[in-house]
Protein 1
Amino acid sequence: LYIDHPMAKGQPVPVEAAQAHYLSGVMRLRVGDDILVFNGRDGEWSARIVQIGKRGGSLEIVAQTAPQRDPPDLWLLFAPIKKARTDFIVEKAAEMGAARILPVQTEFTNSERIRQDRLQAHAIEAAEQCGGTYVPEVGDLVPLPRLLDDWNERRRILWADEVMAGPVQTLSELPRGPWAILVGPEGGFSDAERARLSGMAAVTRISLGPRILRADTAAVAAMTLWQAVLGD
Ligand code: SAM
């Protein structure tokens, strides 16, 4: 369970109403039972339920069960698509260990707004499910030109490009270190965007094979490749 509260042995930790409902109604836990909690900073802890009710409850931290693990230095930049597919991308990015998930507005991106708070909640849920000790940060929608104008070249961009012919770039020859995977919207990138990306020293293009994948599939495929070859 993710609780944004300092954690140390003996520390009392409040539980919100929705989490209390999950613990008692869904997980059927009672006072005296132990659960695992994390706050994204201090590793994983076992905690005892001290009080639980409709309005919330409280826990007492018992002991640390795992140290804090830092996320791999991977970001995902993606163009938001339909709601359910955007939710899917955020959930999978959190599972795949992305440290930051940035929705990017490109020329052919249809949605002009996102619900950052909803997407952040999805990321927290996904992190809880796969026992992570950190929570990826979901950013607000940022226009691609602004993102690239402000880009810190030390983080390399792995651009998944369906137009690229030929075999997959040998990922194992790429340097380890901070990367951001970039996946386009359903309509792909415009000519102007393609020219801009092609001219950036920080950008490496990769193919995900000869088939044109849907954007959500491409995001998962690219993160899997990165994790398999460059992740540690
Ligand atoms: N521009 C294309 C079109 O409209 O026919 C399709 C874009 S594709 C549905 C969405 C995004 O997924 C692309 O911008 C790219 O980032 C990624 N993608 C899809 N298939 C890919 C492949 N085989 N290799 C690399 N990237 C791919």
Note: The mean pLDDT is 92.
Protein 2
Amino acid sequence: MTAELLTGIAELTTQAAEFSHDDDRLRDAALVIENGRIAWIGPAAEAPAADSVVDVHGRAVLPGWVDTHSHLVFAGDRAAEFEARMAGQRYTAGGIVSTMMATRAASEAHLIANARRLRRDAEAQGTTFLETKTGYGLDLASELRSAKAAAEVADVVSFLGAHVVPPGIDRRDYLDLVTGPMLTAVTPHVDFIDAFCETGAFDVEECREVLLAGRAAGLGLRLHGNQLGSSGGVRLAVELGCASVDHCNHLDDADIDALAGSNTVATLLPACDLSTREPFPPARRLLDAGAHIALASNCNPGTSYTTSMPFCVATAVLQMGLTVREAVWAATRGAARAVGREHGPDAVGSLRIGGRADLQVLDAPSVAHLAYRPGMQLCVATWTEGVRARP
Ligand code: NIG
């Protein structure tokens, strides 16, 4: 068992209360990684001896990003649909079927290689923990293949058979398939069940049926809600105690109150909002009301073809009214809550003694630079469970 000392840290963001002083950052800090875990955190001047030393020379260190919403198992792209949107067409869920056809036609090896490529891109930007979903297979064999591919590349997998009803099958028959044989087949490979609660996808009662079937199978619950209108998804997610409801662009006061009075995290997807030209979610109002929020990339070929969490953090600060600290929290510890990993031995999104050594180094003295210098490649190194990688 060897100990690695990181020292010369100008600003260490731990997201752990035990290290908070006037704010959540320690200055002139150091930490020790041992056996994939954080063994020590404190002032650099008091750092213990270690087997190896990495001097980060006045840079900022923070937890790796926790990206809790992505759809990495797909083939093809939808650049033409994107261009049409930028020329004025509104996003509808219609394009999902074209990705479904490309995904069904692709080999398993291609799907895994494409998802791995995207995960590598994410890691180069500081992501150390990632959720991804099925949802572009939409028949039993293709969803099962997608679930297995997702489990190869992601830390957490969600089953999104209820993305849209594919062509050629009756709606009721498809719901019976999703809540029956398809669910049974994918359950060993997934952690959560998800559904798309939206006009053009599934209504509240259909989503309730899907989520309750997933719960009966032992899965955690999450939901896409209120992306294109007031779908009722947010209220359903709160009622069922979903870990997260994602998108949340169209919220009324009662939705915000419901979220604020619940443990359901509102996961906001700023890159998707830019690409679909939907209004940004009322992030400031959510936080001021006391709701939990997270930020995620929503990487997918239709509405958000990016894995860049720094881009999401910068957008949340520059366009959605969050402070830098709030946005960084939402992309780390807030996000961990959205996948049930905020506490316990497998917690992610924070740096604490005995916890996972998932962290990143920025080529900057402070996390403020994430929004102050948007679009720059600031991540220069990551450690995932104590193993170092460089972009
Ligand atoms: O989260 N909104 C539903 N699903 C994806 C987009 C799917 C697509 O258009 O391919 C999302 O944005």
Note: The first strand starts at residue 3 and ends at 13.
